[in-house]
Design brief:
Layout lengths: L3 H12 L10 E2 L9 E2 L8 E2 L2 H15 L3 H4 L9 H11 L6 E4 L2 H12 L8 E5 L4 H13 L4 H4 E4 L10 H10 L4 E7 L11 H10 L3 E5 L11 H4 L3 E4 L13 E5 L46 H17 L1 H25 L4 E3 L11 E6 L4 H9 L2 E2 L1 E3 L3 E5 L7 H17 L1
Parallel strand pairs: 2-13, 5-6, 5-7, 7-8, 8-9
Antiparallel strand pairs: 1-3, 4-10, 9-10, 11-12, 12-15, 14-15
Helix pairs in contact: 1-14, 2-11, 4-11, 5-6, 8-9, 12-14, 13-14
This protein binds pyridoxal-5'-phosphate.
Length: 425
């Protein structure tokens, strides 16, 4: 196969890419090969070069001020989390008071379920996608057990139809309708981590509300990847991590969304801590929890400033670019990558099947490739030659071309190596 035409096309697309300068704002890992084709921004985003400065400011101020840094640091730690609120909210289509950053993602799922999974006698079930990320499965299972139920009775997992890889939107709606009198919660990923399917969250939320069911989303693979409009969609709650598409470093701080309609509901139980308490009264250290209205009222501990600093650095970049431009490039970049993968596969006996939906509105950056008849040696060849991708047993390769720092030439280089690997094995 002649890949040369694609090379020229990639070079031209890169030349015309108005986001191309952002690639320079990130560190790419060094490899044994002479290049690095980084296609795992869906797992751990690259380090923005401005992160070090943001962390250094806090290290310097800690050294200079000690405890006084809570009020006298350049970014006072007492209110540090507030610096993330506005851009963090914009990113997911929320009002400022609806988003706060705290803890890790799975911890937040539990804290949110304290408030939003309220099983009653005949309505105690949770509907979720089959093959959800394991941590989400464990969280849901342990939550239903905590309330005295068995996961087999209380968790309904939705699977694609026979012979299909992804869920049909109408089947999700039908399931909600079918179980509506038994469901306490519908909880799904915004983008499934395995298939890369982007769910129609607006439609799911509308159906849930029609049936009087609380609905929440895990946005680990959606935040910073696809445009979100959580407030308008009427989603009740959501949480996400910031180390995947949001480039904020390993295990970094998580974001939560709580719809305004719940912000002042005193009947909602929650696990409270002093950072969720009325800011004016907090340091009086008096008994009687008085929650801050909005998502901030769900905070427990004082802000982990050194974990928040990289996210502040990263959000600065997102604020500058905006999700609209990122999505526009992402659609083109992913379509190009898909075209190349299909061409390479066709050339080599059609052994690769893309299980991610082909409609752009049903996916983000990620493509999941099922490698019929190939084992991990295919993946190892790519890895040895400078490709960072992700292998899921038994035979799925996940790749994500991220619009902030991936180029069309990255896609070309990947396709070229894939072609070599398919010929070799
Ligand atoms: C990455 C990911 C997680 C990871 O959870 P942590 O608590 O951040 O370790 C959880 N759920 C989903 C859907 C993910 O994609």
């Amino acid at each position: 196969m002649n890949l040369v035409n694609y090379k020229e096309e990639a070079q031209n697309l890169d030349k015309d890419d108005d986001l191309k300068s952002y690639r320079e704002k990130f560190f790419f890992p060094t490899t044994e090969a002479d290049h690095c084709i980084y296609l795992v921004g869906n797992s751990l985003g690259l380090q923005p070069k401005n992160v070090r400065d943001f962390i250094n400011i806090e290290l310097e101020d800690w050294a200079k001020y000690g405890v006084e840094g809570h009020f006298h640091a350049r970014h006072p730690w007492y209110s540090y989390h507030e610096l993330l609120m506005e851009t963090g909210a914009e990113l997911v289509g929320a009002g400022k008071g609806e988003v706060v950053h705290m803890n890790g993602l799975t911890a937040n799922l539990h804290f949110l379920m304290v408030s939003f999974y309220r099983p009653r006698e005949f309505r105690f079930k949770i509907l979720c996608e089959g093959k959800a990320f394991p941590s989400d499965q464990y969280a849901l299972e342990s939550q239903v057990k905590f309330h005295g139920h068995e996961p087999e009775d209380a968790i309904i997992e939705l699977y694609p139809r026979e012979g299909e890889h992804t869920l049909r939107e109408e089947d999700i709606e039908l399931a909600i309708e079918e179980y509506k009198d038994e469901l306490a919660l519908v909880f799904m990923g915004g983008v499934n981590y395995y298939t890369g399917q982007l769910f129609d969250m607006k439609r799911i939320a509308a159906k849930c509300h029609e049936c009087g069911i609380t609905v929440g989303f895990d946005l680990a693979h959606a935040a910073g990847n696809v445009p979100l409009n959580l407030h308008e969609w009427g989603v009740d709650f959501a949480a996400w991590c910031t180390y995947k598409y949001l480039n904020s470093g390993p295990g970094s701080i998580s974001g939560i969304f709580i719809h305004e309609k719940h912000s002042k509901s005193p009947e909602l139980p929650r696990f409270a801590g002093w950072w969720g308490h009325n800011k004016k009264e907090r340091f009086k250290m008096e008994p009687g929890f008085d929650p801050i209205p909005g998502a901030e009222g769900w905070q427990l501990s004082n802000a982990p400033v050194l974990a928040m600093a990289p996210h502040l650095a990263s959000l600065e970049i997102f604020k500058e670019v905006g999700m609209a431009k990122l999505r526009a490039k992402s659609l083109k970049l992913t379509a190009f990558l898909e075209k190349l993968v299909k061409a390479v596969s066709a050339e080599n006996g059609a052994k690769l099947e893309i299980i991610t939906p082909s409609e752009p509105e049903n996916r983000g950056c990620q493509l999941s490739l099922l490698t019929h008849g190939y084992g991990k040696e295919l993946f190892d060849y790519l890895q040895t030659n400078g490709v960072f991708a992700d292998w899921r047993e038994p035979n799925v390769i996940r790749i994500a071309a991220v619009p902030l720092y991936n180029s069309y030439m990255d896609c070309y280089h990947f396709a070229n190596l894939l072609n070599e690997a398919l010929k070799k094995y």
